[in-house]
């Protein structure tokens, strides 16, 4: 697995941006978002400053981004309902991903 990268289209702003895909077993969600923000600023994945991982400087921004998605909007709820019916209610990971995908649509 490791740090694989895929391209995601972001409408109106940038045609494509490399987004790192971190292993679920590797880190917490907060750390994954902080690392992604750090790499988005063109920092190497293992960059350090004063002996500390540089991605830790991005924890406040990562926390704010996750909190902004904490309450699902109607598109996210609709996507969850569709995915729950399609896959069965026990597929929580797929339902969550469907909700996040819905949030990414402008």
Q: Which regions have little confidence, pLDDT < 50, spanning 5+ residues?
A: 1-17
Radius of gyration: 15 Å
End-to-end distance:
30 Å
Name the strands of the widest sheet in spatial order: 1-2
Give me the secondary-structure category.
alpha+beta
DSSP helical segment count: 4
Work out the strand percent: 15-25%
Number of domains: 2
What percentage of residues falls in helices of 4 or more residues?
40-55%
Note the run of SSEs as H and E.
Answer: EEHEEHHH
Walkthrough of the structure:
The protein is of the alpha+beta class. It folds into 2 domains: 1-68, no CATH class; 70-106, no CATH class. 45% of the residues lie in helices and 18% in strands. It has 4 helices and 4 strands, in the order ββαββααα. The strands form 2 sheets. The chain has a two-stranded antiparallel ribbon. A two-stranded antiparallel sheet has the order 3-4. Helix 1 (29-40) packs across helix 2 and helix 3 (74-87) packs antiparallel against helix 4. The longest helix has 14 residues, at 74-87. The protein is elongated. The model is unreliable at 1-17 (pLDDT under 50).
